[in-house]
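Support request, please re-run this one:
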Amino acid sequence: MAALLAGFVLMAAIYFQTVPPLEGFDATAHVRAVLHLRATQRLPRLDNATAQVSYELITQPPLYHSLAALAAAPWPVEPALALVQASSPNPYFEKGLSERQTLTLPNVPWVARAPLQAARGVALLGALLAVASAWWLARTLRPAQPAFALAVASVVGFNPVFLFLAVTVTNDGWAAGTVALTVALAARAAVQGKPPRVWLWAGAAGGLALLTKYSGFLAGVPSLVLLAYYTRRMGTRAALAAAGWALLGGILVAGGIYGRNLWLYGELAPLQRMAAVIPALNRAQPWPWHEVRDYVPWLVWSYWGTFVATIAPSAFLESVRAVMLVGLAGLPLALLRGNGAGDAAPGWTRPWTVAMALAWALAVAAAVLYWTRTVSFGEQGRLAHVAAPALALLWVMGWQAWLPARWQPALHGGMTAGMVGLALWGAAILDDAFHLPPVLANVTPDRVIDAHFAGGPVLLGVDLPNGAALAPGAPLALTLYWTTPQVIGENYTLFVHLAGQDNQLLYQFDGVPAAGRHPTRQWRPGEVFADSHTVALEDIALEGVALEDVRRDGLATLSVGLYPVADPSQRLAVRDAAGAVLGDRVILGPVRLHAQRRVGAPPPRLTARWQGGIGLAGATVQQDGAGQPVAVALTWWSETVQQQELTRFVQVLDAQNRVLAQADGAPQAGAWPVSTWRAGDQIGETVTLVARPGAGQPAWQRVVVGWYDRQGVRRRLVAPTAGQDFMTVMTRGE
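Re-run finished. Output below.
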């Protein structure tokens, strides 16, 4: 068992690092409950004032919150409470723009974080109790099969949802642990034929279960099956005594709290009081049973792969379903093989194990269906983890029924390894949903921008790895590089717009950087991170935008900006590095729209190459009747993605290299800006030459072409010729 628990703790540590402190089912409400008990150090009354603090103080017994408050005792309440208030809620969660319920704020002192981490540590202890109790229960029922117990405990502990519950601020782990401990103690007393007084410990554990959640009453169902076996083995008189001892144990542990409920509210479990204090707790009308039935598949999937708003992919869920079906299909086979007493405790047979586990599982399933029908947001499979050992027993027995006894230990080992793999898969899913983008060092974007937004965000630049172009089947990929010199005090929504002619919006993204994981209030001063987006023609579905407006050759403008989450009309002002106002957005540049997907073609033979990957594939000079050059037909080839805007020049020179005529501009009169060229693009154009005023009519000598940057400061050099920044395409007399 030591190796099992060590493995579970190691896996929980991975989840602990992956899941942010305030994520989890009702986590912030649980934290508020813990901090309230830490501050007041007394049991709350179930009234409206308490409900304003936390609804979990109304709906849950106090064991977990009290233990967590005790663990948080070394630290003051105010910093932790301020952190909870500042971190939640994430305004983008309710909008469906982020899977995170809360924010991970920068520069939070340990004194504020410590009570939250202490509460998570207490939750982990409850989950550890569940795993250990599941192992103990399986060892008690089948002492001759130690690997069987390992497999059962692994199915319980390495369920990704259970691990998620184990490291978040919730009492679910303690609910599963105390119920499992109750059944394990009852099984020990019943199967081993212990004296009736030993049932006191099972009752005491049941009292702990009742102090954790009101679902702790369900521990009585498998305990009654075990008591029935005890009656058969030890007699009615001993069984009645055992029941009395168990009841005494429960009263000693939980009697005070439940007596208080009865005295103050007239109910052992104050359900009516809860409904009165929290009117939204119960559904206005219970769901019809056919609607509840439709939710059964969801309840099963959410038992294994739903982490609040993060849902495991279909491949994960289908894999789990296949394994579940194999186990369930094997269960009748396990019963048909006989009593199977040889691998069980003396006198305890396989049908008794199935009866106990099945009664336990069905009781919890019925309760979950009832909660789904009557309680708002009750349709959650995680609530069935109080029956996790029962489900694990049934599945493992079903799986091993397909194999001969001599192969079963290997199967148990394989199942344990498989559950570890499933847990790692779940950790990867959670990491994808929650991890902050990695901090980048020494980043030089392909297109440097250095735009400073009001409030602190800074856009350093952008990469367009496939080029600034959009075509069917060839999406536009862009990566924005962000940083901030200061802590950002507000949540700003990022927008990415692609606008066509007359500023018609063709594509719009409004959301949170890093796929919803990194709202601006989380940004850490001085850290640089990348934010990637993909614009595909197939994704464009804006109202009023017809596909023919996008699927045609032309140009669009790509821009980004920010606005406060509560007011999209108030875009943030943006300045360049020198402080000059750029407006309320940053123009990233033109994007070339292609009506058709490009057909791959072999690169042509080039007559010249410029640094940066621009090649000249052809040049034809057109002359008038007097032999003067009047136009040049050029064919360009882009060997690489072009990131910089360039100006093409064509010049007619005399023998002294004086310019007689020229034409400077973007290719095709601006219709094919160089910054939109992709690798493999071929661009043809005909350039009309304009005589320079006052040049007279000296004899022309040659026609040259070349490139220079937008500012007209630096020409591109022809490679590999050293120092030459133009290419002669025609010499007089040739």
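Residues 152 and 396 are 6 Å apart (CA to CA). The mean pLDDT is 92.
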